[in-house]
Write a structure and sequence with these properties.
Blueprint: H1 7-15, E1 26-31, H2 40-49, E2 51-53, E3 63-65, E4 68-70, H3 74-79, E5 87-92, E6 107-112, H4 115-120, H5 134-141, E7 142-144, H6 148-158, H7 167-177, H8 183-189, H9 191-196, E8 211-214, E9 222-225
Antiparallel strand pairs: 1-6, 2-7, 3-4, 4-5, 5-6, 8-9
Helix pairs in contact: 6-7
């Protein structure tokens, strides 16, 4: 994950941060490096379909635009007379990485969209950005559960597996085609089953601290990242 501002710029902003001023929004982007032994398409599908915003309303609708997946459709909330969400989780994989310039970098953004949402995360002024714990913020905002495991186990019990058929991929493909390839949708359809799903934090590695990284896109400036 990385800041669009350098540490020095954040410190300067903090010096001029006085009474009556608040941070109205903060977007924290997590960029993921896919290991060589992991299929990239499978990893992208993991982020897109098996992660969801934590404590999200089951009545919320997600929104997709091209390769970008928004956890909450804010326009539908507005039409329903509901207040603006304080947090939105956004996932995409079709843009270059901000830290290393890698093409089509898998990314999850935690967008804190209101002053109250920013403060609830422990960020009261710009200097607090330098002390955040990336892993804590991520797991307070995102859940990851493999709802396809149940269907895969049932399929294996009820059929004689063929060495030419990958049951895991076949079941996941069927879930996608039937429109049930979204964790939020699964939670809405099967709330009891959803509660029994295992938390799969072991599938993602997120550092607990920030470090200073020289950006390939900037010759004399660095960015903070994990």
């Amino acid at each position: 994950m990385g800041w669009r501002l350098s540490a020095e710029a954040i410190q300067i902003l903090d010096e001029y941060f006085g009474n009556g001023v608040s941070l109205s929004a903060v977007h924290i982007a997590y960029e993921f490096d896919v290991r060589d032994d992991v299929d990239r398409d499978a990893f992208v599908e993991l982020l897109d379909r098996y992660t969801a915003q934590k404590y999200q309303r089951s009545t919320d609708e997600t929104f997709r635009f091209q390769a970008t997946h928004y956890s909450i459709d804010t326009k539908i909330r507005q039409l329903n007379g509901q207040r603006r969400p304080s947090k939105i989780v956004v996932k995409y994989h079709d843009k270059p990485g901000k830290l290393d310039g890698e093409l089509e970098k898998p990314r999850i953004e935690i967008r804190l969209e209101t002053p109250a949402g920013v403060k609830a995360t422990g960020i009261s002024r710009p200097i607090d950005l330098l002390d955040i714990k990336p892993d804590e913020i991520f797991w307070k905002s995102v859940i990851i559960r493999d709802y396809a495991e149940r269907a895969i186990r049932a399929t294996r019990r009820g059929t004689t597996p063929s060495p030419f058929i990958n049951i895991d991929r076949r079941v996941r493909a069927v879930l996608r085609k039937t429109g049930r390839g979204c964790l939020l949708e699964y939670r809405r359809l099967y709330p009891r089953r959803f509660k029994k799903l295992r938390d799969r934090r072991d599938l993602l590695e997120i550092d607990s601290t920030l470090y200073y990284l020289k950006s390939r896109n900037r010759k004399s400036e660095g960015v903070l990242g994990v």
